[in-house]
Design a protein that fits this description.
Elements (H helix, E strand, L loop, with lengths): L2 E4 H24 L7 H23 L4 H29 L12 H7 L2 H10 L2 H4 L4 E2 L2 E2 H21 E2 L3
Parallel strand pairs: 1-4
Antiparallel strand pairs: 2-3
Protein name: Disulfide bond formation protein B
Subcellular location: Cell inner membrane; Cell membrane
Function: Required for disulfide bond formation in some periplasmic proteins. Acts by oxidizing the DsbA protein.
Length: 166
Amino acid sequence: MLLPIPVRVIYTFILACCIGLLAYALYAQYVDGLHPCPLCITQRAFFVLTGLVALMSLIFHPHGVGRYLSAGLMLLCCAGGAAVAGRQVWLQGLPPDQVPACGPSLEYMFENLPFGEAFSTLMMGDGNCAEVVWTLFGLSMPNWAMIAFIGLGLAAVATIFATPRR
């Protein structure tokens, strides 16, 4: 069954959402003064990747197997971002005595540690990642990021069932 929505509209929607989410993240960082933790930066990277796949799909308009590949890549990026956001939500839910100690900065990790160890340390999160400094309707920024990744993932799946170009 095909959705009555052109696939390019969905690609545009995904791209616009990613741009909007990243724009707000930059606004929160540079105007509101909220400094992103390593997990926040990783979530931003997954929004960038999702948006880039949507942009490439919008430009090249894949069909056939390419459409499945495009949807799969976007879904994979969204799943990775949701996993990172989920990890941060979990860290934020820990009792204060169980929160990991604050670790080195992201720049320090990637400059001084082997990539595998830096990546592992990054994914573990630290005390900075457990701090809730912003909420909207009782949900923290990682909660909203996880909701956004799930929604974008569903939109990516919808591209498979959307009306192809004529």
